[in-house]
Protein 1
Amino acid sequence: MPFRSLSNIQDQLNTGSTTAVEVAQLYLDRIAQYNDTLNAFVFIDPEHVLAQAEASDAYRAEHGARPLEGLPIAIKDIFCTQNGPTRCCSNILEGFEAPYDAHVITRLKEAGAVLVGKTNMDEFAMGSSNETSAFGGVQNPWNTDCIPGGSSGGSASAVAAGLTPAALGTDTGGSIRQPAALTGLVGLKPTYGRVSRRGIIAFASSLDQAGPMTRTVKDTAMLTSVMVGHDAGDATSVADAPNFDWLKACENKDMKGLRIGKPKEYFIDGMHTEVRAQVEAALKKCEELGAEIVDISLPHTEYAVAAYYVIAPSEASTNLSRYDAVRFGHRCDKPEDLEDMYARSRDEGFGAEVKRRILTGTFALSSGYYDAYYLKAQQVRTLIINDFKQAFEQVDVIATPTSPIPAFKSGEKTDDPLTMYLSDIFTIAVNLAGLPGLSQPCGFAEDLPVGLQWIAPAWQEDKILNAASAYENATDWHTKSPVKFGGAA
Amino acid sequence: MDINVQKIANLSRIRLTDSEATELAPQLSSIMGYIDKLGEVNTDGVSPTAHPHDVAMPQRPDVVTNPNRRDALQQPAPRTESGLYVVPKVIE
């Protein structure tokens, strides 16, 4: 049961062979058993979880099932949720309780989901290993000496270890796809503007998107179909976004006629040889399924990380100016004056990585440097967007490795911020271009999961789901689960 | 690159101790050094991206829709009084 898919649990609930309360209790028991080891959840209120499950069973009996009736979903600590703390895993939000639910949380509740708790993450989603969390790091269930990826590391670890069948994450530069890859899950970053960002604590507003982390492609489609849709409360939520039948898009069994672009800039010297071999093997499999592999080039790829580390910190330095110790958040003891209150509260509340990013962004936006950094980065971003536009004139989807390396050891990269930043080289360009990207498991390297990334033109997640479903149907990587947590590798 | 960390910290309204600033200086220099790579790209005549998609920002009718939730929204504040946020004295 713990490693079953959402749709499998849904079938059992629909046939009456289990109840939402039984399902919730099973995962609560697993959280109680394993969370001390993994540190995947930072807040759990078992009574509230069971109350939601009871209400769901009652709703089903009276009105029938809604789209996510009785299904447990864990929530990254970046989503505002009522009934408990929302901290973005930062000390500056100690004691904060959100006065409203994020838009997507409302959508999940209306669909009958049972919210199981808040998951660990890098502070303000700034990190690739979950090690910048104010609550400490998270273990990767496949090897507990390793990080689970980040910033949605708690969500990844929780799903991979069977503490919840699905979780929500957010992705600014790879924060859903990279941890999904490093823990053997499916994770989708939808097209920018597809999912409302209202009530999601902002990091970099031109890049942030929320999405699901699940065991199967169909589960990802099922959750995303509930999360999407226009919200007048987010000015970047697109009103007339092209839509499609998300579940139907997962019925593909072959890839006949599909043209898959293989960008040479994503298969490079210096990447892990076994990761590369697994992704190459996955592309061979796609060929067997009828796809045509087309060699393409995305020539500005090597500048994506540099552009990102100007744009994301610049937006973050602006977004995080709201932590002023006036309206919410930590306030220092006995401030001498207003300036002292701002400066000391922010020094005490923010961790080292968050400070680094605020300082980098403030520098890039400061007088005399704006043109050389911020403007230049946004111009390079245009060139990156154009690269993708040209590529999609030749191919339907693009396939790449999600991460150049498998999960690394905890502590291995914390001393050198730049090395850590470079672990996102294959995910960042997708955010800069606002495109949808999905990671799915495609093998193992050093006994750790490897992720295959699919990229499609804006609003064409259906093409990704078609391809990923066909690949999943022909392979069994998504059925593996870590033995140490009761799974079957 | 030489970055005046204390000046940037002041603009960011973050107080840094001298030892924090000393530790951060080489890290920021190394990050900005990597970012200087952007200078290699010819961007003559390229428009900067303002939005990832080619869409116009939406507008809504100019009517009041927010209910009065002052008390709930002020609940997380460190200090309030009579519906006002309380901060250290600004004007002597």
Protein 2
Amino acid sequence: MPSSTGQKGQKKRGGKSGRAGLRAALLLAPSALILLIFTLWPMVVAVYHSLFLSDNAHPVPVFAGLANFTALGRDPVFVQVMRNTVLFIVGTVPVSMLIAMVLAVALNRRYRLTPFFRLALFHPVVLPMVSAASIWLFMYTPDYGIVDKVLALFGGPQINWLGEPGTALSAIMLMTIWKQVGYFMIFYLAGLQNIGQDPYEAAAVDGAGPVKAFRSITVPLLMPTSLFVFIIAMVDAFQMIDQLYVMTQGGPSNGTNMLLYYIYQQAFAFSNLGKASALSVILIVILLVVAVLQTLADKRVHYES
Amino acid sequence: MKKLPRHMMKVLVGAMALTLLLSGCGNQAGGTPKTGQTKSVEKLTFDFPVAVAGPLAQDMTQLVNEFNQANPDIHVTPVFSGDYGTTMTKVQTGFKSGNAPDVAVLLSTDMNTLLDNHLILPINGFAASQKDQKWLNSFYPAFMANSTLNGTTYGIPFQRSTLLLYYNKNEFQKAGLNPNTPPKTWSELVADGKALTKAGQWGLEIPTSGLTYWEFQPFAIENGQNVVGDAANKVYFDQPKVVQALQFFADLSLKDKIEPPGLIGWATAPDDFASGKAAMIYHSSGSLTQILKTAKFPVGVAMLPGNVRPGTPTGGGNLYVINTKNKAREKAAFKFVKWMSSPEVAAKWAIETGYIGTSPPVYETAQMKEYLQKTPQGDVARQQLQYAAKELATHDGQEIQQILSTACQKVLTQNVKPLEALTAAQNQADALLSKFKD
């Protein structure tokens, strides 16, 4: 997947003749229009609304400049929400990536049971998040949920996983890792197919063992895939909401409340559109920063060119 | 080659979905035709949520059909719109885009928010005749506490509930307690709870996850100080009696250990009760039918144990007439609301759902009398109504409820002292409510 060559090609063709340029513009127009109407315009609208006080006390919005943003600075729940979001990303993204990479390497060989394991690991991805969350909600039930039942077999304590602030966020993180590892694994499997056998054969001739080969060949050559997976994982993490809606509603005492759920709460439960828009602007800026970082990093992780 | 655009897309699509959500473009109200006045028939839409188990959407359609047949000049289209939360969102966004329904069932506690957004109309304005006035005054006062503001009625009680104590009579017997004398006071609750707690069984479970304020409110009321009064811009979270009540509420699991530690799910408590994991539970009167159906043992139903007085908050939904600015339709909507809350219809709905009959005349109907003969437990909630008090409802009500819930959860799970948690909650609530003059 060499992206740089594609871009260069486009640039050349674009400059060649006006007719080709017109054709390109026409071909792009439908997606550009959709992007404009459903992406860029709503972003502008969100920025606009974020400058107004618009809640139950102000049914007719009142211009307030940056008041919504400064109020967020004094909002203890917002601080907690951001902390939870960061904790969630630190706790899920690297772990999911590592597990996915190791699983992909293990399942890249062809054993008799490989297709079965690939299927088994991919199947959580196919499940809708809402159903998966409902199943995990039941598994985490104190006493008779399967997690506590298994713990009890080994004399472990009975834990109210989702009902204690100390464990609720970790419980959600575990469930999320389970859900997304299979998805990331597919990307790594595709990445591994691209590497081919040659470097490994050369390394074997030079006397490198499997661990050395993994560290010195697999990991670096998978860097473009890793970057891609990292971005997907980051964006997903910022947008996660289904699990929270089903499993904890952001509780206990906001211990699992995260950015998108907080936006949802402000907009639809508390009908505070101004605050929700301000939060959305923050989310958009974060996602844009992630996108820009990715574009910058993308040029540095390719070994092929 | 596809790589770059793809993740850019993903980022943008995410942002798009979000902003779309916020700008409210995603909502289409019902899709039923109501523009274009037909000669003689007023076409109304009626949004309703279903919040308890059972095939209630069908029952509702049947009720509305009866109304349509009896009133040829009005045609009501019932629109099932999810739970209370989604119905509220739908009505609010619909209102902004000129697509609001004419009548809706929404939480009684959302009255202030609906009023602040000029979404609903006073019922008094329609109830001109003496007969209408009599009807307006027929409902149980406990329900009207969350339906009126400064003497004006804005909502008509429709599917209303209270909390009840459900207990396992077999387990009472096994623990040497009299199955016909459930605990009546706080100290009896703790004593019975201790007698009932053993390996594999908790004495008591009160749901505490999500909106904990509702399950905590009885304790404040019973201790002599409700968390809310008549005013819509004032709460009493940090009053000494409320602090004391929260201490008792938390001690049930922390000190007396008759409740499991951590938060208990709303749906978990009835499951635990049915499977014998909990000998007593607090739950909505609306769960009565379901609990009686699933329990394989004799179920006792009782009023909540009191302290200086008995008490419970009310809960559930009211009928609202939406401000559609179309006089003829609003008048027809009032007629529909009146019909829906008439004794016969209310009796039918109460029996079907397990909600409490909303007025004394409901209990005079033949079908209600017959039902109570078969299910005497159904009468406990009505008897408790005389002690029921206002559910926490103010301006920005949902956020205020969330603030109190969070304070309760901090005390239950994070070792925070009740006074500290409630003082912080009071300050947060005051800051929010200071935006409202009355």
